[in-house]
Specification:
The structure is a homodimer.
Chain A (H helix, E strand, L loop, with lengths): L7 H9 L5 H9 L4 H8 L4 E2 H7 L5 H13 L3 E6 L5 E6 L1 H4 L2 H12 L7
Antiparallel strand pairs in A: 1-3, 2-3
Chain A binds a DNA duplex through helix 5.
Chain lengths: 119, 119
DNA sequence: ACAAGTACTTACCCCAAAGTATGTATCATG
DNA sequence: CATGATACATACTTTGGGGTAAGTACTTGT
C-alpha cells in the first residue's frame, strides 16, 4: 500500500487552496463572471437548467454548465435529475450554499443603497 | 459645441455598468485577484503603501497600484499623501468603503466555518 | 423519418487581466 | 556623487477564463 493515489480531494482543494485570505477564499468559490448571477437567481428558489438559461440570456450553455458543475463540486449547489425524457434537471442551493445567503443579502443591500439600477 | 467629449464619467461607469444583477455589481467592484486581499487588510485599519506590499508579498507593484487606483475611482478607498520625502502615503477604507464591512465580515465568517485555514 | 425539446459535451479561438522588467522623482545621508 | 528609501509609471509579454460553434442522446409528436 505504498502507492499514492491522486485522490479527488486534492483535486477539489486545488482551486480553493490558492486562497491566502478568507475573503479571497470566498471569492474563489463565488467569484467569476457567472457564479454571482447564478447564485442570485438560486436565492429565490430551485430552478431548472432551462429556467436559468432564460433568466440569464447572455450566458452560454458551456459556461452555465461549467459553473454549475464547479459549484456542485464545491457543494454549494445541489443537482436533482428526474429520470424522464426529455430531461428534467433542477438546481438549488445546498445546505452549505444556503449559508452564503447572508453574504449575498448584504451584497444586494449594498448595491441597492448605491447607484446600481437593475436592468 | 457639437463635439462629443469622451468624458471621464463614462469611463468610470464602464466597468460598473456591465452588471446585470446586484451581486454582479458588487463583484465588479470588489472582485478580481487582488481587491479582496487588499480590502481584507484595510479592514484592520489604514495602511501605508509599503505596508500593503509587505502584507501581500505575492502582489506586484503594478497590480497593487492599479487596484488601489480603481478603488479610489470607485470611492471605496481613500488615499492620503503627506508631502514629505521619502513619500508617505496612506490608504484606508472611505466612508463608502466602510459599508462593505458587513459583506466582508460575512465572508470571513463563512470561510472560518469551513475548511479554510489561514496561511 | 424527421423535427423538436432538454440537458449536456467538446474542440477550438480570443482577449483582457495579470505578470515581467525597467524607469522616474525627490531628498537625506555617507 | 552615489546609494537608499518610497511611491509610483509604462512598455511588453503571457495565460487562462470566457466565448463560438457544433455535436450527442433519448423520446414524443406529426
Amino acid at each position: 500500500m505504498t502507492a499514492i493515489k491522486e485522490n479527488s480531494t486534492s483535486n477539489a482543494n486545488r482551486r480553493a487552496s490558492k486562497a491566502t485570505c478568507p475573503v479571497s477564499f470566498v471569492m474563489s468559490k463565488i467569484g467569476g463572471h457567472w457564479k454571482p448571477i447564478i447564485l442570485f437567481h438560486l436565492l429565490s428558489g430551485p430552478k431548472r437548467y432551462s429556467e436559468l438559461k432564460k433568466l440569464i440570456p447572455a450566458v452560454t450553455e458551456k459556461m452555465l454548465i461549467q459553473h454549475l458543475k464547479e459549484m456542485q463540486e464545491d457543494v454549494l449547489v445541489f443537482r436533482k435529475a428526474e429520470n424522464v425524457v426529455p430531461p428534467f434537471v433542477t438546481y438549488s442551493l445546498s445546505a452549505e450554499g444556503e449559508q452564503l445567503r447572508p453574504i449575498l443579502d448584504e451584497m444586494v443591500k449594498w448595491a441597492d443603497a448605491r447607484d446600481f439600477k437593475p436592468q
